[in-house]
Amino acid sequence: xxxxxxxxxxxxxxxxxxxxxxxxxxxxxxxxxxxxxxxxxxxxxxxxxxxxxxxxxxxxxxxxxxxxxxxxxxxxxxxxxxxxxxxxxxxxxxxxxxxxxxxxxxxxxxxxxxxxxxxxxxxxxxxxxxxxxxxxxxxxxxxxxxxxxxxxxxxxxxxxxxxxxxxxxxxxxxxxxxxxxxxxxxxxxxxxxxxxxxxxxxxxxxxxxxxxx
Length: 213
Hints:
By secondary structure, the protein is an all-alpha fold. The protein has ten helices and no strands. The protein is globular and about 60 Å long.
């Protein structure tokens, strides 16, 4: 393990990065407002699992191999954008269903596991996250140590745990606010529309962002 002061610095920077506006925490926030704490916590858990997956990819060299293949990066980016767009369309469809049925009926059909899977897939297939882990984690390893892979896994696990805590707090706060707003049918419909619009905007941003290439 890296020294304690290195771990403390790593953790502080990780929390700041996790709090900065990005696709993952915006997903947690929007799902909390539109679907409540349960769905937001599912997204948060899925994103944390996705971060751990990127840790494994970085430690095994998969992320480095991916970074060397612009075509694969582009394919992964398009796939991620398409998935976010699909989630956005689903949220807009939920808003339409809520106009006919109650909002609670539309949300109850989506299990907690469904939201975990959505958060995981959205994070795991995002090439920007893969390249971030590839560039960020090695900066805090002890050079010359033969167990670099184990250090990367330890650091990535710490990053994933703090992600779960930070996103969990966002989920609880936004979910509480969303629960209060959901008592008003028209508000819940507009929250679903907001979630759908945000996800579509994130999809377009990922699709046309060339910083990963």
